[in-house]
Amino acid sequence: MDGRGVCVEEPGFRVLLTEAGDRKMEAVRAIRTVTGLSLWNSKLLLASAPVEITAARWLEAADEAARVLEDAGAHTTLLCDCCGRTVRRGVFPVNSARCAESHGPLRSAGRVASCPPAAI
Predict the structure, then answer these.
(1) What is the pLDDT of residues 32-43, one digit of tens each?
(2) Which residues, in sequence order, are CB contacts of 99 under 8 Å at separation 6+?
């Protein structure tokens, strides 16, 4: 919530696999871990680099997915789903106001609110 008690929508973040790296089998296992894809589809995804590995998700979840892939030797990039800027791994928090200033109010499609659901 912002200072006025209003939910602030945060952009989603996508993980892009930019390069397979030298340890291809470990990278395939990491893709399977992150995406839940089959071995065959994970190999195809790895061979398609550069390719989007995850759709928009919370920054922390995208950062963790990128960490798993990088630990396996793959090279990744985190992208802000709202403005497309590259985000460095491990840098928190991201200033979503920067996206809003650059592109107007954040659109609700594909975004997640940073406040918890209201109690019933």
Answers:
(1) 999 999 999 999
(2) 11, 80, 82, 83, 106
